[in-house]
Amino acid sequence: MARESVQLLGEAHELAPDDARITGTLALSLARVYGLEFFGPETAARAQALAQRALGVDPHQPEAQVARALLALQTNQPEAAVGHLRTALGVAPNSVDALDWLARIMSEVGRVEESLALFERVLAIDPEVVVARHHQARVHAMLGERAKMRELSERCRRSSATRCRGSSSRRATRCGTPIVRARSGCRRSWTKRSSHPRRGRWSRRCSTSHSAE
After folding, report:
1. How far is CA 99 from CA 4, 105, 123, 138, in A?
2. What is the pTM of this model?
3. Per-residue pLDDT averaged across 45-56, rounded?
4. CA-to-CA distance for 98 and 60, rounded, in angstroms?
5. For residue 181, what are the contacts with CB-CB under 8 A and spacing of at least 6?
6. Domain interval for residue 58
7. What's the CATH code of the domain at 46?
8. Residues with Cβ < 8 Å from 110, sequence gap 6 or more?
């Protein structure tokens, strides 16, 4: 699905190369999948170039700013990432991508109350962002609030299972065992890893087809 999404956005970009939103969205899509199978270092370079192009056409293009934030995380620049995300939110305060990633970073640096508030905003805008609910549960676990963590984790599991059952037969086949695969999708996150060979300290714990969409 990730490859299909990138391909479709690439085709749209070829048809409208000066459309800042399409260009920025393609940059964000590439930044999301960078590091997955078939998406090596050239993917990051292309995402960066497309983000810069989108911002050259429209300096306020939010998807391009979020793309730059993800690329900054991949090169161990969390402060720069926060700057890009806040810039995106300055022009698109309901950007789910920007809110979600800012919430994740805030949880990693110990600003848990701000993180929880941001996750609440994400879910108020789009209750189907399962990964945000998972990270919200993780923050409650960090606070020792086990009951709240279990409640949110169960909601995350049910929501993911429903998404998988409601898919087309082709996607359902790809999902395999719905609940197991969906729960795996919930666990996608970024964490600090000093041993990571390419991305420095910030890297993904896991990736699945759900998280790459």
Report:
1. 25, 10, 10, 17
2. 0.69
3. 94
4. 14
5. 164, 175, 208, 210
6. 1-92
7. 1.25.40.10
8. none
Q: Are residues 108 and 68 in the same domain?
A: no
- Sign of the torsion formed by the C-alpha atoms of 195, 196, 202 and 208: negative
Give phi and psi for 191, each to the nearest 5: -145, 165
Sign of CA dihedral 151, 157, 162, 163: positive
- The share of the chain scoring above pLDDT 90, in percent, equals 40
Rounded Cα distance between 196 and 177, Å, is: 30
Torsion 195-32-77-93 (CA) sign: negative
SS (H, E, C) 143-180: CCCHHHHHHHHHHHHHHHHHHHHCCCHHHHHHHCCHHH
Encoded tokens for 31: 């930044």
